[in-house]
Each structure stands twice: as C-alpha cells, then as structure tokens.
Design brief:
six-stranded antiparallel β-sheet, three-stranded antiparallel β-sheet, mainly beta, Jelly Rolls, 7% helix, 137 residues, globular
C-alpha cells in the first residue's frame, strides 16, 4: 500500500447520496475514499434512518479488517466489546476497534451519526459466538 498510487478525492456535500448498507437501521454516505485509495480504505458517514428494525449486527460479530476507527458526529450508541465491557460513545468520542474484537450494539439514539474509516475497504462482517466471559452472564 503506497499513498502515491492513490487518487486525489474531493467529495462534495452538495452531491451526497445516502444508500442502504450493512445495517438496516442506518444509511451510508460513501466519501469517495474507497475509490481514491483503490480499496485500501473506506470512509463513510453512517446515520440512523428512523427504522426500528433489529438486525444481525446487534448480535456478537467481528469485522475482518486491519483498521477501524469510529468518530461520533451526533447522538450516542452503547456497544459491548469483548474484554472491555459496555461502552457508550457520544458526540465527539472516538473508538479504535482493534482487529477481530468481538462486539455488539446494545442501543443507539435516533440521531446517531458517525464517521467510520476502515481498512481494507471490502472488509467482511461475521456473526460469532459470544465471548466466554459474557456468555456465562
């Protein structure tokens, strides 16, 4: 991965499109970083769309990636992380999720919005069994 192979990206807010993505209760705005880095990274805004549907990501899961940063732009969400317990993230907070950490969403506000940056861009999400300590509770 070399930055010299990347393309300059200027993603305009006025041209933003929001699309469905991994989560049924969220919509996603691609910031052009996936194309600009030729798949090395993806950066997108994620915001709650008002749906009240439960989905698989509320189960224990992992992302097959080497880097994942979440920065909260608005609202709040509570996640549970293997070995870290429950963590509530609020506007202005950031989380660096270490590769392969088991986690699940407990709840989020209807105004929840985050910037997420992940590498590689085409990462997989897998549902997994609860961590042993959490499974016993």
């Amino acid at each position: 991965m070399t930055a010299t192979a990347w393309d300059f990206v200027h993603n305009l807010a006025k041209d933003a499109t929001w699309t469905p993505g991994l989560r049924e209760i969220f919509e996603y705005r691609d910031l052009g970083i996936k194309d600009g880095t030729h798949g090395d990274f993806v950066a997108h805004l994620i915001r709650h769309n008002g749906k009240k549907t439960k989905d698989e990501v509320q189960q224990w899961h992992v992302h097959d990636c080497t880097f994942q940063l979440v920065y909260v732009l608005n609202g709040w969400a509570t996640f549970e992380y293997e070995g870290q317990g429950q963590r509530t993230i609020r506007k202005g907070d950031a989380i660096l999720q270490v590769p392969g950490i088991k986690h699940r969403e407990i709840a989020c506000s209807e105004d929840f919005e985050v910037l997420e940056i992940v590498s590689p861009a085409n990462f997989a999400t897998r549902i997994v069994e609860a961590p042993k300590a959490e499974a016993a509770e």
